[in-house]
């Protein structure tokens, strides 16, 4: 029966078993830890060129099933793809149009899936962004709390500061800044479902006098320098390369002289922003983040500088995000039955692959995440930042 497999598969030594639609099984190495159940006969010939996009798409469309822990599935499928597919084959920078309607639709597709679904695997504050692990032993809740604190400290937030939160999500950071620092917060999002729940939580905590949340596009932000500080978490990935300059200029117009701006977002491995190899980026673009474009850290820093800011601090949190995503993936896997009752089967398949796959991608260094702090200097070039970072770690 081995002869029925394409020759390219016969010489591999992977902990992988292929089970065909007719019940026949083929081990591609000793002691398989993962089984791929092929339900569509046409897939067998495509296994000679198993890009991560091909494998992910087949799983999402129900043409194959995968047995084994989702983390091990991702690892073994990557080894299969590495053995047979060129890492950079066909990868080109993604270039898409980013107008207001397109961006609103893309945000709605991703974030308006189901608040209850996100609550299954996020922390209590529903912080859907990289947590901050000071020792690596924290719970997810502790690490997300530490992330909020880390951002507020970097912004040198003080009572009475007027903080703009761009892409405020479910409002966890906005509430934290108001509750713990006494800041006034204006948060914006394009997700109606996020906004509804975020406002409910602001009201429940009695923070309506400090926190205002609106459905607003960043391109419509006031340009009168009314904000003391700006924080943008997980936002610039949705802006698009072509609009990064406009995005940075809008933030420049929104913040006062001497004000600080924190951009926290996922960054590309390649300087031209093309997606990671063997189709993983293509899968994410199609199924997870439509129209998402990751800039390299150098590109993002350049756009920030060209808008008039001075970049004063950069920190990579790559391994922090690998750990965060691993937490999310394990929480989702532990609640698959509940999740299946909340979202369509295809959506659940997408999210299982996405969370586990992204954890693997960050751990492998395929993508990164950076916090980039900048300042809008006074006309004489001065600013009010401390001379050192010591205040951040007291």
UniProtKB/TrEMBL annotation:
Transferase found in the keyword field: yes
Name of the protein in its database record: Class I SAM-dependent methyltransferase
Species name: Pseudomonas eucalypticola
Keywords: Lipid metabolism, Methyltransferase, S-adenosyl-L-methionine, Transferase
Domain DUF7884: 12-83
Keyword Cell membrane included in the entry's annotation: no
A single BP term in Gene Ontology: lipid biosynthetic process
Active-site residues (renumbered): 358
Coiled coil: none
Highest taxon listed in the record's lineage: Bacteria
Family statement: Belongs to the CFA/CMAS family.
Molecular function as annotated in GO: methyltransferase activity
